[in-house]
Amino acid sequence: MKKILLVISTVLLIFLGTVPLGLQQIILAGTVPNKPRYISLAPSTTEILFALGLEEEIVGVSSYCNYPLQVKTKEKVGSFSQPNIEKIVSLKPDYIFCTGLEQAQVIAQLKRLNLKVYVADPKNIKELFNSILQIGRITNRYNTAQALIAHMQKEIEKISAKVNLIPQKEKLKVFIEVWYAPLTTAGKGSFINELITLAGGINIASDTKRPYTIFSAEQVIKRNPDCIILAYMDKEKPVKLLEKRLGWNGISAVRNKRVYNDINPDLLLRPSPRITEGLKEIYQRLYL
How many independent structural domains does the chain possess? Predict the structure, then answer.
């Protein structure tokens, strides 16, 4: 019996010598640590978690979370603004990821229940990078977060290199129509304004005081954009949509049929790693 135990011990020692120290400790302890459990209530933070390789750790998402495709298999915990608190608690999350503004009341309620909450509400690309790093720290994916940011920066630099070759006088004036009733656009302090600038465009609403604001049709006509991008998708051809509006026929973008409604709004409006794809889409509409 002693010989058998000696052989088993020898084999075990040889095996343990070939595996990482952390795994050796798990084997010797006879237990496997539980995976952390994360819930994301915002489409933007859901995309960040997936981009950090945390698919298996995500146990719940909001019904508004629609990317990537794997998110469809995740437990739904209610809508963006009205999540089911009881369901969230039942899933025993280690951390809940949210965004600001509309979710402020929900965030306060979750914190009163002593649940750990991280609020990601970036206003620009620099702040988005910081949010990704913070989420990386919380989820023990800091190195992955750094690599993700480095990749995003390279994509931005590729577009910037092309934009630097465009003379200032040849840069196109752009109007982003976020919605039509009332006519709403993106101005100073918005992600879209930053993307337009990075893509080599000149946002005709960049002098507005709010990131998203109602904008008069008269001002669009007066400022005469070279390109119009509708940040919502419609079955009708975009030029026909705008030709029906009083006085819009004379706008350069409409006259030259430089009106687009084929960019996924999530690429423009959602502060996620896919923001670089939105940048590419804008550049392509302007200069390719």
Answer: 2
